[in-house]
Amino acid sequence: MLPYSTFITIDKKEKMPIFLQIANKTIENIKKGIIPKGTKLLGSRAMALSLGVHRKTILAAYDELMAQGWIETQASKGTFVSQNIPEIKPVSWHNNALSETPKTKTGFEFPKNAVLNKPILRGSSMLGFDDGFPDVRLAPTDALARAYRSVLKKGYQKHTLFYGDTKGEFSLREATRDYLNESRGLHIATDNVMITRGSMMAIYLATQTILNVGDRVVVGKIGYSSGNLVFKNRGVELLYVDIDENGLNVEQIAQLCLEKPIKMVYVTPHHHYPTTVTMSAERRMHLLQLAQKQQFCILEDDYDYDFHYSSSPILPLASVDTEGVVVYIGSLCKTISPAIRIGYVVAPSDLIDEMGYLRRIIDRQGDNILESAMAELFKEGEIKRHLKKSQRTYHKRRDVFCDMLQSALGHVIDFKKPNGGMAVWAKFDPSVSLPFLSEKALLKGLKINNGSTYNPDGVLLNATRLGFASINESEIEQGIGILKNLI
């Protein structure tokens, strides 16, 4: 007789019902060949005695196994493992193969993507000068919770909880349309808006829809590495141009156009990522005219438009595009919280439709409930109030951070006070090894980026982004104190 109690183990602390634990363990051992097909199982009383459970538990487990087709009963003979399961090579129950260890290797070959094999950013409660993220402690969580409840109680559950539009919840598309027309000077209709799960999905969908393998995309030599991953994964050729105090060098783009056709230019003109410089009006107009003449796409990533401190924010390229060459993307992830995975794409409706078809086979749709709740916050004016509060808070933190940084470390860090955004682009003196400093700071409880993600190929910038928005004044003082002591 097989020692069932040895390989059908029960954990009474598990949330899973005991009868399902028994059924699942039995299935596992049938799959492994430990309980061969055709094996007669113990009767319910004998099995209950063997496993130390009530007979009704065994009956429930057998019913489950029978419903799934793993066992069958034969009149006057008993219960048997089904003869219809595939032939499995028997394994001895005391064989080492019984040890249940998590699988680390597949039993088949699959291509591994070297392009995407990069570290993944994760949140942390540790003190840190991050890449430039919002302070999630300021997020309007109470208002969002109320909006969730409101959406679910309005009687639209069938609409909200069912399949929706691949282009996003209509109410949020409308609210986004109104918000962007008012704040960015756009002239768009609802059909020009698609809601995505953050700006990365927006970049991915735009890239997959617009570009073909082998197309050429212009990016900054110092640029957004995550965006570059999306482009490289698409199999395009990246062409790099310089970045200076006026942003992307458009003269170099014009020269490239004379040499070979360009399909897309990726640009963050409001605050260039990562250096935070604002693209000059002259270069903006030159780039727009060039795109219209050469018929390439400008992918305008306006990731932190809502936070500008020194003057009124400069309107995006999309606001003066008359030929449909600009695809404009942004998100609420930097406005409220990285966990609020809501981004948007603004483009001519034919492109929005095409991106919706592609989204259908990736994600099908967004989070209808979250998107409906966010639409409620827009309607109630909660987003506008939150932005006003955050703008005031981050403005003050920028000033405090820059004053402290200059006072304590101005002799070894070169930086300019940014006009907006959530981070400072800091270039360290060659006498300070940024990677080494990053390691030492971590041991002292401070996280800073070691700068490697910003380095162009073969170039060591010894520079990084130091975010100030997500930490308060006392935390800023504490963090700069750690850096000062280490340096």
Can you offer a commentary on this structure?
This protein is an alpha/beta fold and 487 residues long. It starts with a helix and ends with a helix. The longest helix is centred in the last third of the chain and has 28 residues, at 382-409. Helix 3 packs across helix 4, helix 5 (141-153) crosses helix 13 (368-379) and helix 8 packs across helix 12 (349-360). The protein is 40% helix and 13% strand. The mean pLDDT is 90. The strands form five sheets. A seven-stranded mixed β-sheet has the order 4-12-11-10-9-5-6, sandwiched between helices. The chain has a three-stranded antiparallel β-sheet with strand order 13-14-16, with helices on one face.
**Helix/strand/pairing category:** alpha/beta
Widest beta sheet: strand line-up: 4-12-11-10-9-5-6
| Strand residue percentage | 5-15%
Main β-sheet description:
7 strands, mixed
Radius of gyration, CA atoms, in whole angstroms: 29 Å
Count of alpha and pi helical runs: 16
Roughly how many Å apart are the termini? Answer: 72 Å
Low-confidence region ranges: none
Q: In which range does the helix fraction lie?
A: 25-40%
Extended strand count:
16
Q: What global shape is seen? A: elongated
Q: What is the averaged pLDDT score?
A: 90
